[in-house]
Amino acid sequence: MNSITPRQLNARLQKGALRQSRLRLALRLRRRGACLRRNHGLVLETWETIQTNPDLIVACCVGDGEAETGPLATSWQFNKFPDPINDGAVLPILHLNGYKIANPTILARIEPEELDQFLRGNGWTPYYVEGHEPPLMHEAMAATLDQAVEEIKRIQQEARVKGNTMRPRWPMIVLKSPKGWTGPKWVHGVQIEGTFRAHQVPLSDPATQPEHLKLLEEWLRSYRPEELFDGQGKLKPDLAELPPQGNCRMGANPHANGGILLRDLVMSNFRNYAVKVPSPGSVQAADAHELGVFLRDVAKLNREQRNFRIFGPDETLSNRLGAVFEVTNRQWNARQQDNDQFLALDGRVMGVSIYLRMPTACSPFGIIVCAAATTSTSSSPASIKRRSG
Ligand SMILES: Cc1ncc(C[n+]2csc(CCOP(=O)(O)OP(=O)(O)O)c2C)c(N)n1
């Protein structure tokens, strides 16, 4: 691992003209022990990653266009669930570059005060990084990341050492930079950088239009390749050592790779849960109820290794899986009232509907682990009586 300080790293990045902000961000986060994701569905991926990884911080870049989609728009609410003792943390970075493909974004065109109120109203503490000059922006982003990570660690300390588990106002970052930043600024007298025109292909036809070719060359030369590569076109060694190595590479990070960290579930033998029906109509039972008993035992068997969860759109009880609440609860970190039931910070059931608001007409249960099964079973005839015991 690199032993230079974050500010030294930043200075070297400036010098080396590595201007890709995501690379810089990845480096920055790597130094802070975090992993970086560009996410469609803040809750689903990042939240699953931090669960039961108390030391993990996942930075999640959210486009302001993407933030208008249904799943993402509801995902801001996910901070009502994590357990600051046993779970890690997600650091959302809202990239407010102002445009989608051909339109402004809503979050960039409401008043800054409204955006701030929106984010705070969703339970976050926003930190702002705003500007267009790369060196200043990188410095500001570096300092803000430090601040956010320190804040996350402070919250975790409060919970883990002092036992204060009151729902924290987790930090998040709003990164306001021009769309198409450092790309071609103007083409044929039309502004590109900082407008929606920077989306996708800013120079349409360099093969046949000499002016486009010239602009393309200027653009690529603006990254000063002579400072990045040696005479053979190879990345200079001092720069090559900056990107993350091994498991810290974005695509190789074990937390970002489904297969590597998987642990087998300890399973009950499902045959033991069969309902004996000696003759037609002689017993009454409900298939979903039997499934609940089975899931209860799976939850119990995996309690120590904490790798089993049940996700559903608040249908665990209504779909008759209630037996699971004999051994666990619904995870919940918002306010509780006297008449609530089965809510706990370290619950293993996610009874949420916040990521069911899909913008398409596909099955609302398509991304839910358990509800698809429970929903279909609950509609089957309840003609079999529950086995005793
Ligand atoms: C659900 C969905 N809606 C719309 C699109 C079409 N689309 C692709 S990219 C894009 C703009 C995304 O804007 P933003 O998230 O701000 O990304 P950035 O500006 O960083 O490119 C849109 C609308 C899509 N791919 N998926």
Mean pLDDT: 82
- CATH architecture assignment of the largest domain: 3-Layer(aba) Sandwich
Q: Give the name of the CATH superfamily of the largest domain.
A: Thiamin diphosphate (ThDP)-binding fold, Pyr/PP domains
Radius of gyration: 25 Å
Q: SSE order, as H and E?
A: HHEHEHEHHEHEEEHHHHEEEEH
Give the domain tally.
2
SSE-based structural type: alpha/beta
Q: List bound small molecules.
A: thiamine diphosphate
Termini distance?
Answer: 56 Å
> Widest sheet: strand order?
1-2-3-5-4
What is the oligomeric state here? single chain
Number of helices: 12
Q: What is the share of helical residues?
A: 25-40%
- The first-level CATH class of the largest domain is given as Alpha Beta
Low-pLDDT stretches are 1-7, 16-23, 30-41, 356-389
Identify the overall geometry. Answer: elongated
Largest sheet: 5 strands, parallel
Summarize the structure.
With 389 residues, the protein is α/β, with parallel strands linked by helices. The protein has 12 helices and 11 strands.
Report on the structure:
With 389 residues, this protein is α/β, with parallel strands linked by helices. It has 2 domains: 211 residues, Thiamin diphosphate (ThDP)-binding fold, Pyr/PP domains (Rossmann fold), CATH 3.40.50; 109 residues, Thiamin diphosphate (ThDP)-binding fold, Pyr/PP domains (Rossmann fold), CATH 3.40.50.970. Helix content is 32%, strand content 12%. The protein is built from 12 helices and 11 strands. The strands form 4 sheets. It has a 5-stranded parallel β-sheet, sandwiched between helices. A two-stranded antiparallel ribbon has the order 6-7. Strand 1, helix 3 and strand 2 form a beta-alpha-beta unit. The protein is elongated, with a radius of gyration of 25 Å. The N terminus and C terminus are likely disordered. The chain binds thiamine diphosphate (TPP). Thiamine diphosphate binds next to loops.
